[in-house]
Each structure stands twice: as structure tokens, then as C-alpha cells.
Design a protein that fits this description.
heterodimer; A: 270 residues; nine-stranded mixed sheet; 11 strands; B: 982 residues; Mth169, Chain: A; Phosphoribosyl-aminoimidazole Synthetase, Chain A, domain 2; 60s Ribosomal Protein L30, Chain: A; 4 domains; seven-stranded mixed sheet; 29 helices; globular
Chain lengths: 270, 982
């Protein structure tokens, strides 16, 4: 069996790299954490890997709006050895058929650099803005998956329970037609849901006021996926906030399914 | 020609920040009844020319949702435009990121300054708008604001907050041949915070012929330089030297006199030493009281590092910046311990005045709600942006914290016991190692922080002591240093906190035996700083390292790659001197021994007086349901969810027992459990105890109760009582008697009694103190008003749980479960929350039976390991009634309890049983099938007082029969949640 190699990028304020790498490992991949500067230096090459992870955090302190600086860096900073931008490198990675996952700040980076929803890459058409509460909030939410979505990562999920931890997670589109495109392409693979797993616009089940209750979207191929909730924060069953109320602990955390799906898919193609 | 850029949400989109700002304004001005609309804009001022509009848009605009206007107003559709930006020299994190971003696009570095604009629509006068700007939106210590109408905005000029110091750096010689009063005046003028006595010791050092001789050789006059004087004042400050804790004290109690040679040595250090010796091979302490933080064993591979600090004075002046600097500052303590630890959690405890305070405010005092919000936000940004989970904390309210709020920030780290073959908790430095400063640059920020915090807050307190932290610069620094640590590229490190380089290098120099600092080498934020300012600046996000010459190239190369500024600023030596140069001249040359050991001991008097007020007859409420709701809504008891939710408590993926627990994730957790190593089931437990109300009666019992509270919280979640350690953090009102402080001897006696209790109780619990901190001048003096905080000690406990899957939370789990109360209830309502509702203090402060408690805690741990306990909650503020209510509504499961079943040590009435604050009590729920095993284990210490019931109600039966409380949980919970739902 081929080793699936996961790369987790950190640096400049990213802070969920350890648990993201841990989740990749639990799913069966070998995972490596790389500081962005190692990639820019040419010491580590994105295209030596199969699974690219952009974890959560506060890139550049969210100073100009979440991942705004990162979107500029991806397009302008060049890799010393090749002269290519990180953005070009990521597009090549995608074109090789590989998988890209962005969580929270990583999702914001995918969206703001125009990697999601894609078509065409590079144009920002959706965004993640201040929660309606204007507050950073740490709370657990139920998210329901769209079974008809092409998303590789959410296959087989009905609903899962995950924490959100963000101040800027309200999903919004530039135009109604972009939203229609997302609806028609079934790209909104995860939505904030109520107790009966129906998408909801009611706070706090929908923690930020996202359009269409969107918690995560993928591109048309389903191979790029970004979401605001943190699957890597629920790798162990005792991460669940109510685990002491459960009769029996499940064998793993509900967030693992996202990583398991990714690794399983990659095993089929590499 | 500079550019002024405005960015705002497109019309029609919901402006969440604007709405929140509006809520804040309405909180601050409750009488403002007009219909306000607020829109928020981001303003960037770029000091450059020849920029292309597209570049500016790419850097600052989110085209999906925002519009941009360059050198013109984005809109004139408002009544008042309030711009708030930073004054020159104040850390502007957004401006810094903006500069960086523009450089990515243009390849040129152009300074960018950030500001925020608030566009107000509403019928306000200019005066009212200015009032809002001044009292709610801007802090004039660090920010400017300007108020404009729609006409004025058309001609608005860019505001460039550049620092221009037309000052040529110089070194002054200072004559100390002065009278006592002149010396005291000089100390006050320069914010040295030294007494005339201490100044005289310095004066006689400089007059020593041998010293004169040595100084002459190196080109110094027989006067002291300002660099030396400032360095000595910082090193000898209360903040750094803990003079009161090391003073010679004559303590008098009921006519009996006692000599105490040093509180620290006699009580704190002694307790730990004795506990360690008794523990022998089971000693869990690794490094205590010597480094920036205490180190204990986690397991065979890892050690834990823990430190709690306070940042009170800066938070009083600028709550946001003060608290932000507090949290990122304390991060550097465990980070700078040994050769460096990875940071795994934060804990925060705040003491504020009533946020709904409606009295008049003395000069320079901010409204408590502003302090509350500013501190909350500062810690939010500092913790969340650093990627360190905030897992535990509490807030205490007392109006005496109006004078100074207390902001306790704590951080723990983990480090492999051995790194590259060396014990990681040890520091070594060899002569010849290079001195490196890494991280932020130096500015005037924070100068005199160490000495300023060693004084009371007064109307002329220096504003330069206020600064704003930059968590991202620090995150980049810690990412870099953890990597260089593992690569073995440095030998030792320490943080730059209070006292800046003077303190960090001064301390490190003791390891090699001297140092030579080149004060013209450290990078500055702007030119024009005098050498003493460079040495003393407390500019944030800096670490000092000792790097061997052979590693310097690799160290600097990686530093550059990871976008961290590192500079060689000198050499560690074995000269015996603290030696500074500036250019080719020596500007400081002090014997290390004098610097560190020259400070004379203070001699102080302490006089204890027993509290005279007696307990009145306990008032009995007419309506017990209403009283319980009132108790639950009290500031010290009510839900703190508003704050807790805004702190990330699960980053790093190891969260096991969260601060909010229960059926709806909103019950108040007793303590936190995290799993720092993700492929192990071993956990870290952290808890705290703080109960300053009890100080009114006796600080001895206050301290015992704080310690016991922290320990029982720890035990409730499953912490191991044979593997625990604690930190002491004292915040006192000035305990040095003087004309302006006539009751100083009593306050010092309160401090002595706290230390006596610490010694006595930590010994019984075998819980070693491993680190601590004291902040001794928490008073406010202004316009003839003096406000002193109540003597406050925070006890923070850290320890382990062997298997996190055995952890227990406080919420009732299932109807049918049996409810037990562990421990006897006494008539102890002195200084209780219940008495406080009647304005009574009384005398019956709770007394801790530590021997009995320890037995109980060990049994608790055994029961938890065996899986006998479904939930456990400690009984504290508000007593049994409050604890039962919390347990029930957290679990959404009702409770029926009978007060006649409660074990009492004398005749208590219903009210007293409900609200007594007797310590060491725990309420547990047990599944019926485990009842007999549980009862067997605890014997008569556990009394079954009730049962969980299917109805969501709290039913409490009087001792005489009949229900005295029958309230739906929804109603109780609503009272508990409403108070601080801001």
C-alpha cells in the first residue's frame, strides 16, 4: 500500500497544526508539519505530498481581516528556488489530483485566495466575514452533510458534532448567482443544523449567520474542501463536551471521518 | 503625498461590529435613548507616494463585501464621524501587518498607520459625540480621536502617527551627594521607587575608593550614570526584588511578639523544602523558585512548567493593552524557563468592581464596565491569537477593585525532560557566549513598568508604562525558538518582561559571571532613545538568549528565514561586572554582586488586631425561592459564559473537561483537564481558588479557604491528590506603614497571617508551592481619596490525572442517581455571599479542617478511579443551595434534597444549612448500582441527602418537613445567566 503523505502548513500565526497532523496520522497518513518559510525557502515542496492541510489559527493576527494578508502572500511571495508563487504551486498540486483541506483560518485562506469555490481559480467570489454577534465564540455545533455533494471529505456523513472557534465565519457570496452555483453544484457540503439535522439560520445553532447555513464548501471536483468547524479538535471521543454523559465512549472522535475519507480516497488514486 | 484609505462594508450588509459598538455605547450611556446607527470603517494611512490604486485595493479590500475609497470619503451619510487611531509610538499591530502586506505587493516598505472610524447616525450634539468618543471608543492615554461632521470629512487630512524625537541620545551623570529629602525627591521624579535609605546605599557604593578606582580605569566619573541608576532601581524594585517578602518583620499579635527574618524563606520556601524532603523519591518538584516558572514532573518523559503573573497597574490605565500584555507576557515565563517549554494552556482570574457601578469615578479611574470589557478583549486577543487554550479562570467582584483591577494571567508549558542529552530545566551560560535579543524592537514603551508597578496608582502615573502586546510577533518568535531549542542552537534563554534587558541580562549574567552589553546594537522602533531607555524599555515580545559562537550563523540564518529579528547585542563574560557600552564609551559598570546583593533588607512592623464584629442572628428570607434566585444572580456566583465563550478553550486538540459542561454546555466546571500529549491518555488538571471577601475577617482563614477551594476543585474532576503543586499570587494593598498609609502595620499583619496559613496548610495537604508572585501596591490615591483592594491571594493548582477517560464533570447525569454531600456543614456564614446580600460581614469565617479534607480528597480520587462517581461539584460561594442548583440545571435533571439529612456540627436552621460556606464539601451523584460500594468507601463522611428526579425542578425539604424550595430549573438557570449576559 502506498504511503499517503500529508503536509500541514504552519507559521505566521497558524496554531492548529499539531492536532491537524495528529488527525492525519490517526487516519493512516504520514504527516509532516512545515513552516511556510521552509516552503518559500524551497526546503520543502508541496508537490512531494498528497494531502495538503491548511489548519486554523490567526494568520497575521487577522489584522486586515482574516487571511487577507495570507491571500496576498500566496500570490506574491515566491519560492526562492523556483520563482513560483505558493498559489501556483497549490494549483499544480490540485491539478495532480490531490486533496486540499482548509479548516477555519485555512478555509478563510482558501476562500480569500480564490481557491474556493474555484472556477476560475484566483478570483474571490465568496467570503467569510464577522459573525453576526461580532464576537469570537467557542461553541459546539451540529453540522449536517449534503449526501449529493461531490465533496470527497464528507462522504457517508449524516451529521457530526464539532466545535467552531472563530470571530469571522459568516459565509457570504458576492452575488446571488454565485450562491445559485453553489446550490446547484451541491458545493455546500456541510451546513449548520438544528436538533433534527435540518439546516438552520437560528443562533446559536447557526453560530454566525452564514448564508444558507453554510459551514463548509468544496470545489466542483470535491477535492478542495474548507470548513469553519474544527474536525481536528474532535479526534478523541473525550473531546466531546458532553462525553461524561455518554453511556459508552465511541471508538474515535466524530471529526476523524473527514480525515479518514481523505486518506481512503487518496489510497485509491496514488 | 500620503494616502488615506477607507474600507467599509457595502451598503445593505449587516454591520456586526457597528451593532456591537452600539451596544457598548448604550451600556456606557444608558440614558442615551435616541435611535442610533453605527457603521464601522477601517482606515489606513499610507506614508508613501506613487502607489497604484489596484495595489492598495488588493492589500486592504475584500471585494466580495467591502467598498474602498482612496483619498476621499467613502460616504457622507452620517451625522458624526469619529476616527480613533493610535498616538505615535503606540504599538499598531494592524498598521504593521498593513505595511508588510503592501510590501509583498510593491516590494517597497511604506509605513502604514491604522485607525478605526465609527459613523454615527442619530440626533447627537457635537459634545455628545465627543463624549462617546472620549469615554467609550478611545483611550486618550494611547489613542487620538477626532470628531467630524459630513462637511469636515471632505477636507480631512491623513493622520500620520510617526514618532519624531528630536533628541540626541546622551548619558547623564547623576550626583547622589544630596540630603535625604532630595534623594527621595530624585527617586520620585525619575520614578525610581527607591527609598532615601536605598539611594544612600547606592551613593556610598559610588563613593567607595576601590569602586572609584575601578570606574576610573574604564573611563567613568565618580558620579553614577543614569544608566546605572536606572538599572539599580529596576533590579532593586519591589516588583523584581520582592523586598517586602524578604524584609525583617516584627509581628505582634495579642501582645505576643515574633521576629520573622523573611516571609518567603520562613513560610513559602520552607514548606516546599520540607514537603520535598518528606516525599523523598516521590518528590514531584523539578525546579522551584529559581527560574521564571515552577517545574514539576508530568511523567518520565515530560515536565510541566507553570506560572501566574499579575498585570494590574497597566490594566487600570489601559485595560485592553494591559491585559493583552499581561497574557502574552506571562506566556514568556514558562517559555523562558530552563531551555524553553511549549505552552499548553492559559488561565485567567480577574477582580473587578461592579460593572454596573453607578457612583462617581475618581480621576484617572475608568468605569468598571470598561475595565471588564477591555481586559476581556485583551486576554481574548492575547490567548486566542497565540493558539493557547484558555481552560480555567474566574472573576471576583468587589467594589474596592475600583482603585485597581486585578488581572491574573497564568500559563503552563510542557517540555521533554531531556533535550539533546541535557536536562531541559537547567540553564548554563559560558563566558564568551553571545547575547542575543530576538523578537520585537525597542521603543519607549513600558519604560518604568517595574518601578511604576511598585508604587500606588496616582494621578501622575507615567503613561509610558502602558503598552500593547503583539501576539503574532510573539507566536513567530516562539515557533522559531522551539525549533532552535530542539536543534540545540542556544544554551539558555529568558524573557524580557519587567525591567527589559537590564533584568533579563542582569539575571543571566549571574550564570557566567558577568556581561558586556553594547547598547547601540539593539534594533529600535525609532531613533532618539537614550541608552538607559534602551536598557530599561519593556517593549514586548522579546527574549534574550545565550548563543555559543559556533552556532550563531545557523541561529541567525533560521531566524531570518522565519521572519524573526535577532541581533547580537553583547557577550556574556566572567568579569564580575554588569558592563554596558554605547559606541566606544562605557556607560555602566556595576559589580554584579552589588547589583544583586547590595540591597539592604527592609525592616517592617506588623500588628494584628482581631476582627471585632460578631455574627448577628442569621436573617431568614420570607421567600426561599426568590432568595435562591437572587443568590444565583449575584456577580460572584452568576454564569461567566459571556466571557468564557469568547476564549478558545480547545485549540491544540487536548480539551477533556472544558470550562463549560453539562447537557447544554453551559454548566460551571470546577476545574479543567487537558491532554497535552495527543497519543497518551495522561492528562493535566488545573484549578484555582480565590476568596478575598474572607480577608475582612482574617487573612489566615481566607488563605486556607483559597487553597482548599483550589484543591477540592481539582479533586472534583479527578485530579490525583498525590501529584499536585500550587502557585501563590499575592495582590496586596500597601503593607508598609507610613504617614500616608497609617494602617500599614495591620495590612502587613494580614500578609504575615496569609503566609502562616500557606505554610501550615500546604504542609498538611503535601501540596508544594513551586512558584509565585506578589504585587504589593494595589492602592489608588487621587483627590484625597484612597481606595485599597482587599488583601487577595490566588492559589493556582496544577497536577495530573492518570487516565483522562476517568474524569468527572459537575452536572447531574441521570434521574434516579443518588445525591451525597461529603463533609460536615458548620455555621460558617462570616463574609459569605449570603450575609453580603444583607450588608453583613459577621465573624464566622469558614475554617478548614485540612486533615479531614485530605482524607476525603484521597477517597474521592479512589472512587473516581473505580468509576463510582457520576458527577462531583464543590460547594463554595453561596453554599449548598447554589451548588445543588448549579448541578441540577447544568445536567437538566432535577434534584430532590432533604436538609434534615445534612450532617451539621451544631444546631443550624434551614437558611444556615442552605448558605453556609463551610469548606471542603463536595456534592456527588452516584448511580444506584454503585451506592453500596460508594458508601462503604466513605462511611459516615458521605451523607445521602437526596436523589436526581425526572422533573426538571429543584425541590428542597426543610429540616422540619415541607418544601422550602421548589423551583423549576429553567427559572433558576435564567436568574443565573441573566446578570452578565452583555
Amino acid at each position: 500500500m502506498t504511503q499517503i503523505k500529508a503536509l500541514v502548513i504552519t507559521g505566521f500565526g497558524t496554531n492548529c497544526e499539531t492536532e491537524m497532523a495528529h488527525a492525519c496520522r490517526l487516519a493512516g497518513a504520514v504527516s509532516e508539519i512545515a513552516h511556510l518559510s521552509d516552503i518559500l525557502k524551497g526546503k520543502i515542496r508541496i508537490n512531494d505530498y498528497h494531502f495538503l492541510n491548511l489548519p486554523g489559527g490567526f494568520l497575521d493576527g487577522d489584522d486586515l481581516g482574516s487571511a487577507q494578508v495570507e491571500s496576498v502572500r500566496l500570490k506574491h511571495a515566491r519560492i526562492e528556488t523556483t520563482g513560483r508563487t505558493l498559489f501556483e504551486e497549490i494549483v499544480t498540486f490540485f491539478q495532480r489530483g490531490m486533496l486540499i483541506l482548509g479548516v477555519c483560518n485555512g478555509f478563510q485562506a482558501l476562500v480569500k485566495s480564490g481557491l474556493l469555490p474555484g472556477s476560475p481559480f484566483g478570483k474571490r467570489r465568496v467570503s467569510l466575514i464577522f459573525n453576526d454577534s461580532a464576537k469570537f465564540e467557542d461553541r459546539w455545533v451540529r453540522v449536517a452533510a449534503d449526501p449529493s455533494s461531490p465533496c470527497i471529505f464528507t462522504k457517508g456523513i449524516d451529521h457530526i458534532y464539532l466545535p467552531v472557534r472563530h470571530g469571522e465565519g459568516k459565509f457570504i457570496c458576492d452575488t446571488e448567482s454565485t450562491l445559485d452555483e453553489i446550490r446547484n453544484g451541491r458545493l455546500a457540503s456541510l451546513k449548520y443544523a438544528d436538533g433534527s439535522s435540518e439546516p438552520t439560520m437560528t443562533y446559536p445553532s447557526n453560530p454566525n449567520g452564514s448564508a444558507d447555513a453554510i459551514a463548509g464548501i468544496c470545489d466542483q471536483t470535491g477535492r478542495i474542501f474548507g470548513l469553519m468547524p474544527h474536525p481536528e479538535a474532535f479526534t478523541h471521543p473525550a473531546n466531546h463536551p458532553g462525553w461524561t454523559r455518554l453511556k459508552e465512549l465511541p471508538s474515535k472522535g466524530e471529526g476523524m471521518v473527514i480525515f479518514d475519507n481523505a486518506v481512503q480516497f487518496l489510497r485509491g488514486i496514488v | 503625498m500620503p494616502y488615506r484609505v477607507e474600507v467599509g462594508l457595502k451598503p445593505g450588509l449587516f454591520d456586526a461590529r457597528g451593532e456591537r459598538t452600539k451596544r457598548q455605547i448604550l451600556h456606557a450611556f444608558p440614558s442615551l435613548s435616541i435611535d442610533l446607527k453605527i457603521r464601522c470603517l477601517d482606515v489606513y494611512t499610507i506614508d508613501a507616494s506613487g502607489l497604484n490604486d489596484e495595489w492598495i485595493s488588493e492589500a486592504f479590500l475584500d471585494p466580495v463585501v467591502q467598498d474602498i475609497a482612496i483619498n476621499e470619503p467613502l460616504t457622507r451619510d452620517f451625522d458624526w464621524y469619529i476616527e480613533v487611531g493610535y498616538k505615535p509610538g503606540v504599538t499598531d499591530n494592524v498598521g504593521k501587518s498593513a505595511t508588510y502586506t503592501l510590501k509583498l505587493i510593491t516590494s517597497n516598505e511604506s509605513p502604514v498607520y491604522s485607525a478605526r472610524a465609527f459613523l454615527i447616525s442619530g440626533a447627537l450634539t457635537r459634545e455628545a459625540a465627543t463624549g462617546i468618543a472620549r469615554d467609550c471608543l478611545a483611550n486618550s492615554l494611547i489613542q487620538y480621536f477626532r470628531v467630524m461632521d459630513p462637511d469636515e470629512i471632505r477636507t480631512v487630512q491623513p493622520q500620520i502617527s510617526v514618532v519624531t524625537l528630536n533628541h540626541t541620545p546622551s548619558v547623564q551623570d547623576v550626583s547622589l551627594t544630596l540630603s535625604d529629602s532630595e534623594l527621595a525627591a530624585l527617586s520620585r521624579e525619575r520614578t525610581l521607587a527607591l527609598t532615601a535609605e536605598e539611594m544612600k546605599v547606592i551613593a556610598s557604593y559610588v563613593k567607595d575608593p576601590l569602586v572609584i578606582e575601578e570606574r576610573k580605569k574604564i573611563g567613568l566619573a565618580d558620579k553614577i550614570t543614569d544608566v546605572e541608576l536606572e538599572c539599580l532601581a529596576q533590579t532593586w524594585s519591589e516588583h523584581c526584588k520582592h523586598k517586602i517578602f524578604n524584609a525583617e518583620i516584627t509581628y505582634e499579635e495579642n501582645g505576643r511578639k515574633e521576629q520573622i527574618s523573611s516571609l518567603f524563606k520562613s513560610y513559602i520556601q520552607r514548606s516546599t523544602a520540607e514537603i520535598r524532603e518528606e516525599a523523598g523519591a516521590d518528590d514531584i518538584c523539578v525546579s522551584v523558585f529559581t527560574d521564571n516558572a515552577g517545574v514539576i514532573r508530568f511523567n518520565d518523559e515530560h515536565n510541566l512548567v507553570f506560572k501566574v503573573e499579575t498585570h494590574n497597574s497597566p490594566s487600570a490605565l489601559d485595560p485592553y493593552g494591559g491585559a493583552l500584555t499581561g497574557i502574552v507576557g506571562v506566556n514568556r515565563d514558562p517559555f523562558g524557563t530552563g531551555i524553553g517549554a511549549k505552552l499548553i494552556f492559559n488561565t485567567d482570574v480577574f477582580c473587578f468592581a461592579d460593572p454596573f457601578y453607578s457612583g462617581t469615578l475618581p480621576p484617572k479611574i475608568l468605569h468598571p464596565l470598561r475595565i471588564f470589557e477591555g481586559v476581556r478583549e485583551g486576554v481574548e486577543h492575547g490567548g486566542n491569537k497565540s493558539g493557547i487554550p484558555t481552560v480555567n479562570g474566574s472573576i471576583v467582584f468587589d467594589d474596592r477593585y475600583l482603585g485597581k483591577p486585578l488581572v491574573y494571567c497564568g500559563t503552563a508549558g510542557i517540555m521533554p525532560r531531556v533535550i539533546n542529552g541535557k536536562l531541559s530545566h537547567e540553564k548554563t551560560i559560558l563566558p564568551g557566549d553571545l547575547i542575543i535579543m530576538a523578537g520585537g524592537r525597542i521603543g519607549k514603551d513600558g519604560i518604568h513598568g517595574a518601578t511604576f508597578s511598585s508604587e500606588e496608582l496616582h494621578e501622575e502615573s507615567p503613561t509610558s508604562a502602558v503598552q500593547i502586546g503583539d501576539p503574532i510577533t510573539q507566536k513567530k518568535l516562539t515557533d522559531f525558538l522551539l525549533r532552535t531549542r530542539d536543534l540545540g542552537l542556544y544554551r539558555a534563554l529568558t524573557d524580557n518582561g519587567a525591567g527589559g534587558l537590564s533584568s533579563s541580562i542582569g539575571e543571566m549574567a549571574q550564570l557566567s559571571g558577568g556581561c558586556r552589553i553594547e547598547l547601540d546594537k539593539p534594533p529600535l522602533k525609532y531613533q532618539g532613545l537614550d541608552p538607559w531607555e534602551i536598557l530599561l524599555s519593556e517593549a514586548q515580545e522579546r527574549m534574550t538568549l545565550a548563543v555559543p559562537g559556533e552556532d550563531i550563523e545557523a541561529f541567525l540564518a533560521l531566524s531570518k528565514q522565519m521572519d524573526v529579528e535577532s541581533t547580537v547585542i553583547g557577550t556574556f563574560t566572567d568579569s564580575g561586572y554588569f558592563h554596558c557600552t554605547y559606541g566606544d564609551k562605557t556607560v555602566a559598570y556595576i559589580k554584579l554582586d552589588f547589583l544583586h546583593n547590595g540591597l539592604p533588607k527592609m525592616k517592617l512592623k506588623a500588628h494584628w488586631k482581631d476582627w471585632s464584629e460578631a455574627d448577628p442572628q442569621t436573617p431568614v428570607p420570607a421567600d426561599h425561592n426568590a432568595k435562591l434566585e437572587e443568590m444565583l444572580s449575584r456577580l460572584n456566583i452568576c454564569s461567566k459564559e459571556y466571557i468564557v465563550r469568547q476564549y478558545d478553550h480547545e485549540v491544540q486538540g487536548g480539551s477533556i473537561v472544558k470550562p463549560l459542561v453539562g447537557e447544554n454546555c453551559d454548566g460551571p466546571s470546577d476545574a479543567a483537564v487537558i491532554r497535552p500529549v495527543l497519543d497518551s491518555l495522561q492528562g493535566v488538571v488545573v484549578s484555582n481558588g480565590i476568596i478575598p471577601r474572607y480577608s475582612d475577617i482574617d487573612t489566615f482563614h481566607m488563605t486556607a479557604c483559597a487553597l482548599d477551594e483550589a484543591l477540592r476543585n481539582y479533586v472534583c474532576v479527578g485530579g490525583n491528590p498525590e501529584h499536585w503543586a500550587c502557585l501563590d499570587n499575592f495582590c496586596w494593598c500597601d503593607p508598609v506603614a507610613s504617614e500616608k498609609n497609617p494602617d500599614g502595620e495591620y495590612k502587613l499583619a494580614q500578609l504575615v497571617r496569609t503566609n502562616k496559613a500557606l505554610y501550615e496548610y500546604t504542609k498538611i495537604y503535601r501540596c508544594p508551592l513551586v512558584s509565585g508572585k506578589d504585587s504589593m501596591k494595589n492602592d489608588y490615591v487621587g483627590q484625597g481619596i484612597k481606595i485599597s483592594i482587599p488583601p487577595t491571594i490566588l492559589i493556582s493548582v496544577i497536577g495530573i490525572i492518570d487516565d483522562i477517560t476517568t474524569a468527572v464533570t459537575m452536572d447531574i447525569k441521570k434521574p434516579g442517581d443518588l445525591i451525597y454531600l461529603l463533609g460536615m456543614t458548620g455555621k460558617e456564614l462570616g463574609a459569605s455571599e449570603y450575609f453580603a446580600t444583607y450588608g453583613i460581614i459577621g465573624s464566622s469565617v469558614p475554617r478548614v479542617d485540612a486533615q479531614g479534607a485530605l482524607k476525603r480528597y484521597k477517597r474521592m480520587n479512589e472512587a473516581i478511579r473505580k468509576g463510582l462517581i457520576r458527577s462531583a461539584h464543590d460547594v463554595s460561594d453561596g453554599g449548598l443551595a447554589v451548588a445543588l442548583a448549579e448541578k441540577a440545571f447544568a445536567g437538566s435533571v432535577g434534584i430532590s434534597a432533604d436538609l434534615s439529612k445534612v450532617a451539621v456540627d451544631q444546631d443550624l436552621n434551614d437558611t444556615e444549612i442552605l448558605y453556609s460556606e463551610t469548606q471542603s464539601r463536595i456534592i456527588v451523584s452516584v448511580a444506584p448500582e454503585n451506592a453500596s460500594a460508594f458508601e462503604q468507601l466513605f462511611g459516615s463522611d458521605a451523607r445521602r441527602i437526596g436523589q436526581a428526579i425526572p422533573d426538571r425542578e429543584l425541590l428542597i425539604q426543610s429540616r422540619r418537613g415541607g418544601l422550602i424550595i421548589d423551583s423549576p430549573l429553567s427559572k433558576l438557570k435564567a436568574s443565573w445567566k441573566a446578570t452578565l449576559d452583555l
